[in-house]
Amino acid sequence: MAIISDFQDDEAQPRQQQAAAGVEEALAALLERCGGALPFLQAAVGVAHRRSGLFRDPSAVSKVTAMAAAARAEVEAEERAAREAKRKAEEAERKAAAEAEKAAKAAAAAAEKPESSAEKDGMEVDKKEEGNVRREYSVLVPSSFQIAIAAES
Fold it and tell me: 135: helix, coil or strand?
């Protein structure tokens, strides 16, 4: 018997889901016909009042209020998540722009600086010694040139 009841529960779930989808579609159509959410809710509360004993229970108002508060909290959470996603996207965009700018500056700086060590060594260097400015120059001589000089001597 347990197996049969499990089998019936498995079949009941798709039917309940289909019924819930049909109910939601009917309520959505009714919402549109009522002219908005508040008139729809007024009509629903009116029907619940006239056709059920819902509001005879003293806690009914707080239960309905709790449902509305839960729906509002869900909306706020969705809005917060959307703002956070937008903020993260803007932050990522700013980081990408900063990295691109940094790369462009690095490329510009690399283009301005001499590439070879020979050019770097031949640059003029200013040194200050006790108020005097002394200019030093480095001259790089190829080793083959030095060998030729030594052979002549």
Answer: strand
Query: Which DSSP string do the residues of 52-106 spell out, in sequence order?
Result: SSGGGSTTHHHHHHHHHHHHHHHHHHHHHHHHHHHHHHHHHHHHHHHHHHHHHHH
pTM: 0.49
Rounded Cα gap, residues 139 and 118, in angstroms: 8
pLDDT of 39-77, one tens digit each?
A: 999 999 999 999 998 899 999 999 999 999 999 999 999
Question: For residue 41, what are its two tokens?
Answer: 């809710």
Q: 82: which 2 tokens?
A: 């959307």
Residue 121: pLDDT band (50, 70, 90) is very low
Radius of gyration of the chain (CA): 41
